[in-house]
Amino acid sequence: MGSKRNFLLILIGIIIVSWFIGVLVYQSPVKTEKVYKEAINDLKNEKYANAYYLFSKVSFFSKLKPIALYHQAECAEKIQDTDTAIKKYRALFKIYPNHKLSPKAKYLAAQTLVKDDPATAKKYFDEIIEAYPHTDFAIAAEYYSGLILMKSFTNSPDKIFPESKKTDVENYFRHYLKKAPSGRLALNVIDSWLSLDKSIVADDYLLMAKSYYLFNEYKKAEELLKKVNFKESWAIEVQNAYALGNNARVKYLTEWGLQHHAQYIDNYDIYDAVDTYLKLFPSKYEGANRLFYLANSKGKDYIWDIKCSYSDSSAKSQCFKDLYLKYPDSPFVDDALSQIFLETIRKNDLGNAEKIGMDFLNKFKSSEFTPMVMYWMGRIAEKKHDYSGYMSYYKSVISKYPDTYYAYRAYLRMNHTRGALITNHIKEQPVEYPYNKKPPILETLISLNDFDVLEEFARGDGFLKSWIEYRKGDYSQSIVSARDAMDELAEKPDKYDLRWRLVYPLHYFDEVKADADKFGNNIPLMLSIVREESYFNPNAKSGVGAVGLMQLMPATAAEVAQKNGIGKYNLKNPNDNIRLGNAYYAFLKSMLSGMDISSIAAYNGGIGSVNSWKQNIYYNDTDEFVEQIPYPETKNYVKKVFRSYWNYVRIYSGND
User: Which of 133, 249, 336, 578 has a CA between 20 and 30 Å from the CA of residue 629?
Assistant: First the structure.
């Protein structure tokens, strides 16, 4: 009897082991990924039933299983099998609570349950708000929780809706509009809120009006703004009136609002109103000068700063001095003091300039103008033949602000480099995963073309988001994501950090190199123009009609093509655009004595303007010329292009 029992146990064990081995063989990584890829293709081709079946073949032993559950739910929703969809979403966030997809799965399950099981849906939404407060899911959950709470009373037999519960509903809706005024559900929020049988306060009408404006619902915004006290609404009314084409009202609202009601408006709303007003004038100086004499208090420092920035050179310095003395605590005094500092240097009053510079560096530790002041303090020390002093300042600029235009200028001064260019040679290197360890699942999902799911892995990480966008082929958005993430870092990583390659990638390197060599241009400098002009988007088109990677005006391109014997071309074709852009830059350089700084300025501001500036600006060297370019847009363009140039050289050629 015992031997028979032992035999049965052994047989059962063999069967279990055989089953287990069979599962492992069937679900080997290669076979699993093949099945998964077929499922993804079916999903994209809208063969939802077959995709669902194939995703079900992914074993619980596979790292792809939680993602397969998510896609099964997605397929079930597509064929309107909501019960199965909810079942799969629940399986995902219950079995894999820490998975990247779990918050989204819970949100989608709650969304699906809103109609048939609102109590459970609200429970899930409230859990999302508490557990993931800074996500888009939590913001959207605010709307749905408010909607469910509202319907629980409006649809009840007794129709009794306590005021306290109406207030709770309002709070949900208010939180949504404050966090996401242009969010996907904002208009739904407004419609639901307006249907609530409760008086709405003026501040909330203003919230709604802002959302209507952001959704281009200008007439609806106008109607709601009538319900708001003018002193609190005039700034958004300015923008709405401009959108409606009522320029006379834009002028009236801005001027009257700044004179009488500026104290009731948030600073940034005032800045937006002023910027809108300035669009109505031929020059920003003209508009700012008009407002300057009308504004009484709040916002005047912003107008003053604009007026000074666009003043001619003879009045600029005194304008900034007056601003600095009148508004010592303004957020724009760092700009004012930095300009006073530069003007004092131009007057060769080095003793006072040094005092002003030290005062600036003591007051403003993290201003955008700090690298500039630090660099020019080095120039002062250099003029005084203080070797250790200027080397200390230049090294500080490079170490503390390594990716800036002034780090580039400091490098040139430290190495006694003549001209604007450091090198023409950089080593082509690919964009790589930005961190030391890459989770295998990411590469697996990319190989399986499952980019939609990958976005969930990148939530909250701009560099990872950038890398995924790069792998997806969205080069321009990849740069934007990486740039913004790098800007948020208080301390920048060293030049070898792979994140830099996302901020400054080498797209179209072979094409740029070939044409730069052909026309005698500097390769990294041409890459810098492409980056700053279009962020490597071959379909880019500016508001004035410039087209393609190097943003050429059609008329300019036609002239350049004729001069260089270039026949048919398409400005949206990368090869054609890069060739014409290089030819145009070579022409500018030939007309400007081979000077790259002047040529970059001409690429943005026009060759006539550059020649005029050279005749009318008093300057001793390149630094002084750049700082005095009268067009702020062109001055900033020159700095941006050479900042990119410096970073391409720094990252890809090994220069420190």
Answer: 578
Domain 510-653 fold is Lysozyme (1.10.530)
Q: Provide the 10 A C-beta neighbour count for residue 140.
A: 24
Q: Are 233 and 200 in contact (CB under 8 A)?
A: no
Q: Is 565 helix (H, G, I), strand (E, B) or coil?
A: coil
Instruction: Count Cα neighbours of 433 within 13 Å in the Cβ-side half-sphere.
Output: 11
Q: Are 105 and 86 in contact (CB under 8 A)?
A: no
Lookup: tokens for 640 = 């941006």
Q: Which two tokens stand for residue 445?
A: 């999902």
Alpha helices in 132-229 (DSSP H): 136-154, 163-179, 186-195, 202-214, 218-225
pLDDT tens digits, 444-499: 998 888 988 988 888 889 999 999 999 999 999 999 999 999 999 999 999 999 99
Interatomic CA distance for residues 146 and 142, integer angstroms? 6
How far apart, in whole angstroms, are the C-alpha atoms of residue 656 and residue 161? Answer: 69
pLDDT of residue 654: 67
Which tokens sit at 217? 């619902």
Domain with CATH 1.10.530.10 in the chain: 510-653
Residue 27 scores a pLDDT above 60: no
8 A C-beta contact, residue 434 and residue 463: yes
Confidence at residue 4, expressed as pLDDT on a 0 to 100 scale: 60
140: tokens are 């959207």
For the record, the structure tokens of 364 come out as 């403003």
Distance (Å, whole) CA 537 – CA 487: 21
Nearest to 198 by CA among 169, 177, 228: 169
Supply the pTM of this predicted model: 0.88
pLDDT digit string, tens, across residues 514-537 = 999 999 999 999 999 999 999 999
Q: How far out from the chain centre does Cα 365 lie?
A: 24
Closest residue by Cα to residue 206 from 180, 174, 179, 172:
174
Give residue 17's pLDDT. Answer: 47
